[in-house]
From TrEMBL:
Pfam families: Lipase_GDSL (PF00657). The keyword Signal applies. GO terms for molecular function: hydrolase activity. InterPro entries: GDSL, SGNH_hydro_sf, SGNH_plant_lipase-like. Residues 1-32 form the signal peptide. Gene3D superfamilies: SGNH hydrolase (3.40.50.1110). Keywords: Glycoprotein, Hydrolase, Signal. This is GDSL esterase/lipase. Belongs to the 'GDSL' lipolytic enzyme family.
């Protein structure tokens, strides 16, 4: 279902979801394949899947984040749950605790190494200037190595301390866990700030190669099941579109997104998919699933009204006045008056939470369409059967 061939309508997408899920179900039954029993999830990524890492590392994320589901800030850049949370729910596992947030957390069923602002390649930019996290993907995998070594030692030496053991992962579970990647959007965003499109395009191979290195490293440590998200349509983000005035013909696509930015995201995704296919041949015991999150997000934006999202092109949380923008939850002085950027009355009718991240309602919609296997390439395998090489 290529975007270049036209975006499917919501009814068509729903029909395809039904047919593909039905066919995958028949395939699994015919082969006698029961659902995988994942004891844990280990996630690597950026703010699209960060469940509290960057908040613990720098400063607590404040209101109104988390208001819809958690009813308090829980380190997520949304009003509620993320795709990562819906994946955990679907697999019957607890929400992932952030590795960097150790207070009162249990890591028996996995850990989240993602942090807001993370990139695949290290960036020479400050988190406080441009929101780029120092925890790039190589640092996240180093954190994983430390996590495995430290928890395995503690588990082995806990002995009769049942409470302590109950919060630690079982060493034998690391090879049975699901390893999720959702990262790359910030590499593109940094490229748009610092490079020409030609330079960014030339850097794609190295960016994707470094993600491949992370997968290979985890495989060498015993990981076997990988669920790899591609990057979304960055040219459709409201924070990008708000600065556009009188665009030249052809600058925006048919649904009003920045065309060249989405083309760059599509090129990244093309190379990422090629990398996944190559790794399938190089890692004989690995099951690697490439997940087309781009199509899910673009389809939602293109068909938002029929999906029940009345304010698809606007952000729920934030404040805009003329050429000024105040980020969600922040304060600013405008014309001598203090302004607090609060949230909208009903986040469920918005696709975008804060101009960059998605609302819980949008995350739920996207999750339903990727978890089912409709948009995965392994071939079309649902997440419940991702441990098999089909």
């Amino acid at each position: 279902m290529a975007i270049g061939g036209g975006v499917p309508s919501l009814p068509c997408l729903a029909l395809l979801l039904l047919l593909v899920s039905w066919n995958v179900g028949l395939l699994a039954i015919a082969r006698g394949l029961p659902p995988c029993e994942f004891p844990a999830i280990y996630n690597f990524g950026d703010s699209n899947s960060d469940t509290g890492g960057i908040s613990a590392a720098f400063y607590p994320m404040g209101s109104p984040t988390g208001e819809t589901f958690f009813h308090r800030p829980e380190g997520r850049a949304s009003d509620g749950r993320l795709i990562t949370d819906f994946i955990a729910e679907h697999l019957g596992l607890p929400y992932l605790s952030a590795y960097l947030d150790s207070l009162g957390r249990s890591f028996r069923h996995g850990a989240n190494f993602a942090t807001g602002g993370s990139t695949i390649r290290r960036q020479n930019e400050s988190f406080f200037e441009n929101g780029v996290s120092p925890f790039s993907l190589d640092i996240q995998t180093a954190h994983y190595d430390q996590f495995v070594a430290r928890t395995s030692y503690l588990y082995k030496n806990a002995r009769a301390e049942k409470f302590r053991r109950s919060r630690l992962p079982r060493p034998e579970d690391f090879s049975k866990a699901l390893y999720v990647f959702d990262i790359g959007q910030n590499d593109l965003a940094a490229g748009f700030r610092k490079m020409t499109n030609e330079q960014l395009n030339a850097s794609m191979r190295d960016i994707v190669s470094q993600l491949a290195t992370a997968v290979q490293h985890l495989y060498q440590q015993g990981a076997r099941t990988f669920w790899i998200h591609n990057t979304g349509p960055i040219g459709c983000l409201p924070i990008t579109l708000r600065y556009i005035r009188n665009p030249m013909p052809g600058y925006l696509d048919e649904i009003g997104c920045v065309k060249d930015q989405n083309e760059m995201a599509s090129e990244f995704n093309r190379q990422l998919k090629g990398m996944v296919m190559q790794l399938r041949g190089e890692l004989p015991e690995a099951a690697l699933t490439y997940v087309d999150v781009y199509t899910a997000k673009y389809s939602l934006i293109a068909n938002s009204t029929r999906a029940g999202f009345e304010r698809a092109g606007k952000m729920c949380c934030g404040y805009e006045w003329e050429d000024k923008h105040v980020w969600c939850g922040q304060k600013a002085s405008i014309n001598g008056s203090e302004v607090v950027a609060g949230s909208c009355e009903d986040p469920s009718i918005f696709v975008s939470w804060d101009g960059v991240h998605y609302t819980e309602a949008a995350n739920r919609w996207i999750s339903e369409h990727i978890i089912s296997g409709l948009l995965s390439d392994q071939p079309n395998v649902p997440i419940t059967h991702a441990c098999y090489r089909l």
